[in-house]
Amino acid sequence: MSITPTEQKIIDYLQQGDKRALDLLYDNYSNSLYGVILKITVNEEVAQDALQETFVKVWKNASKYDASKAKLFTWLFRIARNTAIDKLRSFNNRYHKEVQIETSNVYILPTTNFNEDVMDIKKHVGGLEEKYQIVLDALFFQGMTQQEASDELDIPLGTIKSRLKIGLRELKKVYNP
Question: What is the DSSP secondary-structure string of 101-133?
Fold first, then answer.
């Protein structure tokens, strides 16, 4: 694969943690990446958020780029595409859920049947090993998706899923001894 001098400079800056890489990336790739993202999201506001998040992910994962495996644009494209898909899912989940007030039973729940132990779930999560606490906190209390937690915590997605499963299993022991 042939690398242009600009691509090489960007790669060098990324590997050195030099923030000039972001300026060069933005100047050279933002329009193309925005086009890809907008085509997926079909929403300018969501696309702009996804583009910004793409550059954050690129910066955080700069050390993972391997020029022998993919051209710089291919790597950027994959990050942008996946980010756009995640943003679109998040947007659709957040803004397209309908609340059926007429059929809601929230006001007729009997209060005498609540298990008081369940009301203090944060306390019980706090009793788990820290690695499970971190994942459960990100997913349930901060509202992250598994992929967002993986990116934010810099933990592989498979590990996030495993820790979630084990953490929930441990909580189940508390609530259903």
Answer: STT--GGG--GGG--TTGGGHHHHHTTS-HHHH
CA atoms within 13 A on the CB side of 123: 7
Residue with tokens 């595409």: 81
- State the amino acid at position 114 in one-letter form: F
| 154 vs 117, higher pLDDT | 154
Which pLDDT value is given to residue 50? 94
Q: What whole-number distance in Å separates Cα of residue 112 and Cα of residue 132?
A: 31
Could you tell me the CA-to-CA distances from 51 to 18, 25, 47, 84, 89 in Å, in that order? Answer: 20, 12, 6, 8, 15
Q: What are phi and psi of 115, to 5 degrees?
A: -85, 115
37-77: per-residue pLDDT in tens?
999 888 899 999 999 999 999 999 998 888 888 899 999 99
Residue 143 exposure: Cα atoms within 13 Å on the Cβ side: 3
